[in-house]
Amino acid sequence: MFRSNVYNTHIKGSMPVSTRRVHKAHIVESLPELHQCLIDIMGVMNQPERDVALLEMAGLTLERALMPLLVLIERLGPIGVVDLAGRIGRDYTTVSRQVARLEALGMVIRRAGPSDRRMREASITPRGKSATDALDTARETMALALFSDWSNEDFRELLRLMKMLAGGMNGMPT
Question: Which of 62, 82, 56 lies closest to 128, judged by CA?
Answer without folding.
Answer: 62
